[in-house]
Amino acid sequence: MFDSVDSALTALKKGELIIVTDDENRENEGDLVGIADYIDAEAINFMATHARGLICAPISSDIAKNAGLIPMVTHNSDEFKTAFTISIDHVSSTTGISAYERFETIKALTDKNVTTHDFNQPGHVFPLIAKDGGVRQRQGHTEAAVDLAKLSGANSVGVICEIMNEDGTMARLDDLEVYKEKHGLKMISIEDLKSYIENKTLVQHEATVNMPTAYGNFKMYGYTDGQGKEHIALVHGEIKDKMKVRIHSECLTGDVFKSARCDCGEQLDLALKIIAKEDGVILYMRQEGRGIGLANKLKAYEYIEEGYDTVAANEHLGFDADLRTYDVAAAMLKHLGLREVTLLSNNPKKIDGLRQEGIVVNREAHIVSGNEYNSSYLNTKREKLGHLL
Protein backbone atom coordinates (compact mmCIF):
# COMPACT_ATOMS: atom_id res chain seq x y z
CA MET A 1 0.00 0.00 0.00
CA PHE A 2 2.60 2.56 1.09
CA ASP A 3 5.67 3.47 -0.92
CA SER A 4 9.12 4.35 0.38
CA VAL A 5 9.95 7.95 1.21
CA ASP A 6 12.86 7.80 -1.25
CA SER A 7 10.55 6.82 -4.11
CA ALA A 8 8.15 9.60 -3.13
CA LEU A 9 11.00 12.13 -3.18
CA THR A 10 12.00 10.93 -6.64
CA ALA A 11 8.43 11.45 -7.86
CA LEU A 12 8.24 14.90 -6.30
CA LYS A 13 11.47 15.99 -8.00
CA LYS A 14 9.90 15.00 -11.33
CA GLY A 15 7.06 17.42 -10.67
CA GLU A 16 4.59 14.70 -9.72
CA LEU A 17 2.08 14.83 -6.90
CA ILE A 18 2.04 12.24 -4.14
CA ILE A 19 -0.48 11.21 -1.46
CA VAL A 20 0.44 11.81 2.18
CA THR A 21 -1.72 10.30 4.90
CA ASP A 22 -1.87 11.17 8.58
CA ASP A 23 -2.75 9.03 11.59
CA GLU A 24 -6.22 7.49 11.83
CA ASN A 25 -6.50 9.01 15.31
CA ARG A 26 -5.74 12.49 14.00
CA GLU A 27 -7.55 13.81 10.90
CA ASN A 28 -7.40 10.40 9.18
CA GLU A 29 -7.11 12.09 5.79
CA GLY A 30 -4.96 12.00 2.71
CA ASP A 31 -3.66 15.09 0.94
CA LEU A 32 -2.19 15.50 -2.50
CA VAL A 33 1.25 17.05 -1.98
CA GLY A 34 3.55 18.74 -4.45
CA ILE A 35 6.68 20.90 -4.23
CA ALA A 36 6.38 24.44 -5.58
CA ASP A 37 9.81 24.39 -7.23
CA TYR A 38 8.91 21.32 -9.32
CA ILE A 39 5.20 21.47 -10.18
CA ASP A 40 3.38 23.47 -12.85
CA ALA A 41 -0.10 24.90 -13.26
CA GLU A 42 -1.39 21.50 -14.41
CA ALA A 43 -0.72 20.13 -10.94
CA ILE A 44 -2.91 22.85 -9.42
CA ASN A 45 -5.64 22.02 -11.92
CA PHE A 46 -5.33 18.32 -11.06
CA MET A 47 -5.79 19.14 -7.37
CA ALA A 48 -8.86 21.26 -8.06
CA THR A 49 -10.37 18.60 -10.35
CA HIS A 50 -9.44 15.33 -8.68
CA ALA A 51 -8.90 16.20 -5.00
CA ARG A 52 -11.47 19.00 -4.58
CA GLY A 53 -10.28 20.14 -1.17
CA LEU A 54 -8.76 23.50 -0.24
CA ILE A 55 -5.51 24.22 -2.07
CA CYS A 56 -2.97 25.54 0.42
CA ALA A 57 0.71 26.47 0.34
CA PRO A 58 2.73 25.23 3.34
CA ILE A 59 5.78 27.43 3.93
CA SER A 60 8.56 27.77 6.49
CA SER A 61 8.36 30.43 9.18
CA ASP A 62 11.28 32.29 7.56
CA ILE A 63 9.43 32.60 4.25
CA ALA A 64 6.31 33.76 6.07
CA LYS A 65 8.32 36.52 7.73
CA ASN A 66 10.01 37.61 4.52
CA ALA A 67 6.64 37.74 2.76
CA GLY A 68 5.00 39.63 5.62
CA LEU A 69 2.37 36.93 6.09
CA ILE A 70 0.56 37.18 9.41
CA PRO A 71 -1.84 34.70 11.03
CA MET A 72 -5.39 34.72 9.74
CA VAL A 73 -6.74 34.96 13.30
CA THR A 74 -5.26 36.12 16.60
CA HIS A 75 -6.81 33.21 18.50
CA ASN A 76 -6.52 29.87 16.72
CA SER A 77 -9.28 27.59 18.01
CA ASP A 78 -8.73 24.90 15.36
CA GLU A 79 -8.32 21.48 16.99
CA PHE A 80 -4.98 20.89 15.25
CA LYS A 81 -3.84 24.55 15.30
CA THR A 82 -3.41 24.70 11.51
CA ALA A 83 -1.46 27.92 11.03
CA PHE A 84 -3.36 29.72 8.26
CA THR A 85 -2.14 33.15 7.27
CA ILE A 86 -4.27 35.75 5.53
CA SER A 87 -4.88 34.46 2.01
CA ILE A 88 -2.96 35.96 -0.92
CA ASP A 89 -2.90 36.59 -4.65
CA HIS A 90 0.20 37.62 -6.56
CA VAL A 91 0.06 41.28 -7.55
CA SER A 92 0.02 40.26 -11.23
CA SER A 93 -3.22 38.28 -10.77
CA THR A 94 -6.56 39.29 -12.25
CA THR A 95 -9.22 37.22 -10.51
CA GLY A 96 -6.53 35.05 -8.86
CA ILE A 97 -8.63 31.88 -8.91
CA SER A 98 -7.48 30.21 -12.12
CA ALA A 99 -5.11 27.29 -11.80
CA TYR A 100 -2.44 29.30 -13.61
CA GLU A 101 -2.77 32.35 -11.36
CA ARG A 102 -2.82 30.27 -8.20
CA PHE A 103 0.33 28.55 -9.43
CA GLU A 104 1.99 31.93 -10.08
CA THR A 105 1.08 33.05 -6.56
CA ILE A 106 2.54 29.90 -5.01
CA LYS A 107 5.64 30.07 -7.21
CA ALA A 108 6.30 33.64 -6.04
CA LEU A 109 6.74 32.36 -2.49
CA THR A 110 9.90 30.53 -3.60
CA ASP A 111 11.63 33.81 -4.53
CA LYS A 112 14.32 34.48 -1.92
CA ASN A 113 13.66 38.22 -2.29
CA VAL A 114 9.91 37.92 -1.77
CA THR A 115 8.27 40.70 0.26
CA THR A 116 4.77 41.65 1.33
CA HIS A 117 4.58 43.96 -1.71
CA ASP A 118 4.48 40.92 -4.03
CA PHE A 119 0.97 39.98 -2.89
CA ASN A 120 -2.53 41.32 -2.53
CA GLN A 121 -4.54 40.26 0.52
CA PRO A 122 -6.95 38.55 0.81
CA GLY A 123 -6.67 36.22 -2.15
CA HIS A 124 -7.22 32.69 -3.39
CA VAL A 125 -4.09 30.91 -2.09
CA PHE A 126 -3.94 29.93 1.58
CA PRO A 127 -0.41 29.84 3.01
CA LEU A 128 0.15 27.67 6.08
CA ILE A 129 3.16 28.20 8.37
CA ALA A 130 4.94 24.97 9.28
CA LYS A 131 6.46 24.40 12.69
CA ASP A 132 10.26 24.77 12.56
CA GLY A 133 10.69 21.23 13.88
CA GLY A 134 8.69 19.77 11.00
CA VAL A 135 6.81 16.50 11.41
CA ARG A 136 8.98 15.71 14.40
CA GLN A 137 7.25 18.59 16.19
CA ARG A 138 3.77 18.47 14.61
CA GLN A 139 2.48 15.54 12.57
CA GLY A 140 0.51 17.60 10.06
CA HIS A 141 0.36 17.78 6.28
CA THR A 142 1.72 21.34 6.51
CA GLU A 143 4.93 20.16 8.12
CA ALA A 144 5.13 17.09 5.88
CA ALA A 145 5.06 19.23 2.74
CA VAL A 146 7.81 21.56 3.98
CA ASP A 147 9.95 18.65 5.19
CA LEU A 148 9.58 16.95 1.80
CA ALA A 149 10.56 20.19 0.07
CA LYS A 150 13.71 20.44 2.19
CA LEU A 151 14.57 16.78 1.66
CA SER A 152 14.25 17.21 -2.09
CA GLY A 153 16.61 20.18 -2.10
CA ALA A 154 13.90 22.69 -2.95
CA ASN A 155 12.77 25.92 -1.34
CA SER A 156 10.54 25.39 1.70
CA VAL A 157 7.26 25.82 -0.19
CA GLY A 158 4.79 23.02 -0.81
CA VAL A 159 1.27 22.66 -2.17
CA ILE A 160 -1.37 20.50 -0.52
CA CYS A 161 -5.02 19.69 -1.10
CA GLU A 162 -7.32 17.33 0.83
CA ILE A 163 -8.65 14.40 -1.18
CA MET A 164 -12.43 14.04 -1.20
CA ASN A 165 -14.53 11.21 -2.59
CA GLU A 166 -16.85 11.98 -5.50
CA ASP A 167 -19.82 12.07 -3.10
CA GLY A 168 -18.16 14.86 -1.10
CA THR A 169 -17.05 12.74 1.86
CA MET A 170 -13.42 12.63 2.97
CA ALA A 171 -11.31 9.87 1.44
CA ARG A 172 -10.06 7.45 4.09
CA LEU A 173 -7.31 4.86 3.76
CA ASP A 174 -9.31 2.29 1.76
CA ASP A 175 -10.51 5.05 -0.59
CA LEU A 176 -6.97 6.42 -0.91
CA GLU A 177 -5.60 3.03 -1.94
CA VAL A 178 -8.10 2.94 -4.83
CA TYR A 179 -7.31 6.59 -5.65
CA LYS A 180 -3.57 5.86 -5.68
CA GLU A 181 -3.98 3.01 -8.17
CA LYS A 182 -6.39 4.98 -10.36
CA HIS A 183 -4.01 7.91 -10.80
CA GLY A 184 -0.70 6.06 -10.53
CA LEU A 185 0.58 8.02 -7.53
CA LYS A 186 3.05 7.30 -4.76
CA MET A 187 1.65 7.24 -1.22
CA ILE A 188 3.47 7.66 2.10
CA SER A 189 2.40 8.25 5.69
CA ILE A 190 3.50 11.12 7.92
CA GLU A 191 4.66 8.55 10.47
CA ASP A 192 6.97 6.96 7.88
CA LEU A 193 8.29 10.40 6.93
CA LYS A 194 8.98 11.18 10.60
CA SER A 195 10.90 7.93 11.00
CA TYR A 196 12.80 8.57 7.77
CA ILE A 197 13.95 11.97 9.02
CA GLU A 198 14.90 10.65 12.43
CA ASN A 199 16.78 7.62 11.16
CA LYS A 200 18.39 8.78 7.94
CA THR A 201 18.54 12.49 7.36
CA LEU A 202 18.51 14.39 10.63
CA VAL A 203 22.25 14.02 11.13
CA GLN A 204 25.04 12.28 9.28
CA HIS A 205 28.30 11.27 10.95
CA GLU A 206 31.14 12.29 8.62
CA ALA A 207 34.44 11.68 10.42
CA THR A 208 36.16 11.04 13.76
CA VAL A 209 39.66 12.29 14.56
CA ASN A 210 41.95 12.78 17.54
CA MET A 211 42.04 16.44 18.57
CA PRO A 212 44.80 17.52 20.96
CA THR A 213 44.01 20.94 22.44
CA ALA A 214 45.30 23.35 25.07
CA TYR A 215 42.71 21.80 27.41
CA GLY A 216 43.60 18.17 26.79
CA ASN A 217 43.22 15.43 24.21
CA PHE A 218 39.73 15.02 22.77
CA LYS A 219 38.07 12.99 20.05
CA MET A 220 36.28 15.20 17.53
CA TYR A 221 33.23 13.85 15.69
CA GLY A 222 32.11 15.75 12.60
CA TYR A 223 28.44 15.77 11.55
CA THR A 224 26.27 17.33 8.87
CA ASP A 225 22.55 17.89 9.26
CA GLY A 226 19.75 17.81 6.72
CA GLN A 227 20.32 21.49 5.88
CA GLY A 228 24.01 20.97 5.13
CA LYS A 229 25.21 22.68 8.31
CA GLU A 230 28.30 21.21 9.94
CA HIS A 231 28.44 20.52 13.68
CA ILE A 232 31.02 18.86 15.91
CA ALA A 233 31.12 16.86 19.11
CA LEU A 234 34.23 17.06 21.30
CA VAL A 235 34.47 14.00 23.53
CA HIS A 236 36.85 13.63 26.46
CA GLY A 237 37.17 10.18 28.01
CA GLU A 238 35.36 6.97 27.22
CA ILE A 239 31.65 7.21 26.36
CA LYS A 240 29.56 6.15 29.35
CA ASP A 241 25.82 5.74 29.91
CA LYS A 242 25.69 9.08 31.72
CA MET A 243 28.00 12.00 30.98
CA LYS A 244 28.25 15.74 31.36
CA VAL A 245 27.29 17.60 28.20
CA ARG A 246 27.54 21.21 27.10
CA ILE A 247 25.55 22.31 24.00
CA HIS A 248 27.29 25.42 22.76
CA SER A 249 25.89 27.49 19.90
CA GLU A 250 28.53 28.98 17.64
CA CYS A 251 29.47 32.59 18.48
CA LEU A 252 32.30 33.82 16.29
CA THR A 253 32.56 37.16 18.08
CA GLY A 254 32.68 35.60 21.55
CA ASP A 255 34.43 32.29 20.90
CA VAL A 256 37.17 33.55 18.58
CA PHE A 257 37.49 37.27 19.18
CA LYS A 258 36.60 37.11 22.90
CA SER A 259 33.87 39.73 22.63
CA ALA A 260 32.82 41.20 25.97
CA ARG A 261 29.29 41.87 24.64
CA CYS A 262 28.19 38.32 25.51
CA ASP A 263 29.24 35.50 27.81
CA CYS A 264 29.69 32.88 25.08
CA GLY A 265 33.47 32.73 24.99
CA GLU A 266 33.71 32.43 28.75
CA GLN A 267 31.04 29.72 28.79
CA LEU A 268 32.89 27.69 26.14
CA ASP A 269 36.20 28.10 28.00
CA LEU A 270 34.61 26.95 31.27
CA ALA A 271 32.96 23.97 29.57
CA LEU A 272 36.25 22.85 28.02
CA LYS A 273 37.93 22.98 31.42
CA ILE A 274 35.13 21.02 33.12
CA ILE A 275 34.87 18.37 30.41
CA ALA A 276 38.65 17.94 30.20
CA LYS A 277 38.75 17.35 33.97
CA GLU A 278 35.61 15.26 34.49
CA ASP A 279 35.04 13.73 31.01
CA GLY A 280 32.04 14.43 28.87
CA VAL A 281 30.91 15.93 25.58
CA ILE A 282 30.77 19.42 24.09
CA LEU A 283 28.46 19.85 21.11
CA TYR A 284 29.41 22.86 19.01
CA MET A 285 26.33 23.77 16.99
CA ARG A 286 26.20 26.09 13.97
CA GLN A 287 23.42 28.30 15.32
CA GLU A 288 25.09 31.71 15.37
CA GLY A 289 23.15 34.57 16.93
CA ARG A 290 20.48 32.27 18.44
CA GLY A 291 19.88 30.98 14.93
CA ILE A 292 19.76 34.19 12.87
CA GLY A 293 23.32 34.01 11.51
CA LEU A 294 26.40 36.20 11.86
CA ALA A 295 25.42 39.07 9.56
CA ASN A 296 21.99 39.40 11.17
CA LYS A 297 23.58 39.23 14.62
CA LEU A 298 25.75 42.21 13.72
CA LYS A 299 22.66 44.04 12.48
CA ALA A 300 21.04 43.26 15.83
CA TYR A 301 24.10 44.75 17.54
CA GLU A 302 23.44 47.97 15.63
CA TYR A 303 19.96 48.13 17.12
CA ILE A 304 21.33 47.29 20.56
CA GLU A 305 23.63 50.30 20.25
CA GLU A 306 20.49 52.37 19.61
CA GLY A 307 18.92 51.16 22.86
CA TYR A 308 17.18 47.89 21.99
CA ASP A 309 17.80 44.82 24.13
CA THR A 310 18.98 41.59 22.47
CA VAL A 311 15.46 40.13 22.21
CA ALA A 312 13.88 43.32 20.87
CA ALA A 313 16.71 43.69 18.34
CA ASN A 314 16.11 40.19 16.92
CA GLU A 315 12.37 40.82 16.77
CA HIS A 316 12.90 44.21 15.09
CA LEU A 317 14.77 42.35 12.36
CA GLY A 318 11.72 40.10 11.91
CA PHE A 319 13.01 37.04 13.80
CA ASP A 320 11.76 35.25 16.88
CA ALA A 321 13.78 35.88 20.02
CA ASP A 322 15.41 32.44 19.71
CA LEU A 323 15.28 30.30 16.55
CA ARG A 324 17.50 27.49 17.82
CA THR A 325 16.27 23.90 17.91
CA TYR A 326 17.86 20.92 19.62
CA ASP A 327 16.74 17.93 17.56
CA VAL A 328 20.08 17.75 15.75
CA ALA A 329 21.97 17.99 19.04
CA ALA A 330 19.86 15.14 20.42
CA ALA A 331 20.57 13.04 17.31
CA MET A 332 24.30 13.60 17.77
CA LEU A 333 24.08 12.49 21.40
CA LYS A 334 22.16 9.39 20.38
CA HIS A 335 24.78 8.59 17.74
CA LEU A 336 27.41 8.76 20.48
CA GLY A 337 25.31 6.36 22.55
CA LEU A 338 24.09 8.85 25.15
CA ARG A 339 20.52 8.71 26.41
CA GLU A 340 21.01 10.40 29.79
CA VAL A 341 23.09 13.53 30.38
CA THR A 342 23.93 16.15 32.96
CA LEU A 343 23.55 19.30 30.92
CA LEU A 344 25.83 22.25 31.69
CA SER A 345 23.29 24.97 30.98
CA ASN A 346 21.21 27.83 32.31
CA ASN A 347 18.71 27.66 29.43
CA PRO A 348 15.43 25.77 30.08
CA LYS A 349 14.77 25.63 26.33
CA LYS A 350 17.79 23.35 25.86
CA ILE A 351 16.56 21.05 28.60
CA ASP A 352 13.05 20.89 27.14
CA GLY A 353 14.43 20.43 23.62
CA LEU A 354 16.47 17.38 24.60
CA ARG A 355 13.68 15.89 26.68
CA GLN A 356 11.29 16.17 23.74
CA GLU A 357 13.76 14.01 21.79
CA GLY A 358 13.82 11.30 24.46
CA ILE A 359 17.03 12.31 26.24
CA VAL A 360 16.95 12.11 30.05
CA VAL A 361 18.32 15.42 31.31
CA ASN A 362 19.68 16.56 34.64
CA ARG A 363 21.00 20.11 34.92
CA GLU A 364 24.13 21.64 36.33
CA ALA A 365 24.37 25.43 36.44
CA HIS A 366 26.94 26.93 34.08
CA ILE A 367 27.59 30.45 35.37
CA VAL A 368 30.37 32.82 34.34
CA SER A 369 31.04 36.33 35.57
CA GLY A 370 29.48 39.31 33.82
CA ASN A 371 31.13 42.59 32.92
CA GLU A 372 30.19 46.20 32.25
CA TYR A 373 29.49 45.45 28.57
CA ASN A 374 27.24 42.40 28.91
CA SER A 375 25.30 43.09 32.12
CA SER A 376 22.24 44.27 30.19
CA TYR A 377 22.51 41.25 27.86
CA LEU A 378 22.58 38.86 30.82
CA ASN A 379 19.62 40.60 32.45
CA THR A 380 17.62 40.24 29.23
CA LYS A 381 18.47 36.53 29.00
CA ARG A 382 17.16 36.09 32.53
CA GLU A 383 14.08 38.31 32.30
CA LYS A 384 12.91 37.68 28.73
CA LEU A 385 14.32 34.27 27.81
CA GLY A 386 13.96 32.62 31.20
CA HIS A 387 17.60 31.71 31.65
CA LEU A 388 18.39 30.48 35.15
CA LEU A 389 20.90 33.17 36.05
From TrEMBL:
Cofactor: Zn(2+); Mn(2+); Mg(2+)
Keyword GTP-binding: yes
Gene Ontology cellular component terms for the protein in this record: cytosol
Reactions accelerated catalytically: GTP + 4 H2O = 2,5-diamino-6-hydroxy-4-(5-phosphoribosylamino)-pyrimidine + formate + 2 phosphate + 3 H(+); D-ribulose 5-phosphate = (2S)-2-hydroxy-3-oxobutyl phosphate + formate + H(+)
Transcription recorded as keyword: no
Pfam families: DHBP_synthase, GTP_cyclohydro2
Protein EC: 3.5.4.25
Enzyme class: hydrolase
Superkingdom, natural source: Bacteria
Gene Ontology BP terms: riboflavin biosynthetic process
Alphabetically ordered keywords of this record: GTP-binding, Hydrolase, Lyase, Magnesium, Manganese, Metal-binding, Multifunctional enzyme, Nucleotide-binding, Riboflavin biosynthesis, Zinc
Pathway: Cofactor biosynthesis; riboflavin biosynthesis; 5-amino-6-(D-ribitylamino)uracil from GTP: step 1/4; Cofactor biosynthesis; riboflavin biosynthesis; 2-hydroxy-3-oxobutyl phosphate from D-ribulose 5-phosphate: step 1/1
Gene3D superfamilies, alphabetized: DHBP synthase, GTP cyclohydrolase II
Domain GTP cyclohydrolase II span(s) in chain numbering: 206-363
HAMAP family, per the entry: RibA
Family: Belongs to the GTP cyclohydrolase II family.
Listed name of the protein: GTP cyclohydrolase-2
Organism: Jeotgalicoccus meleagridis
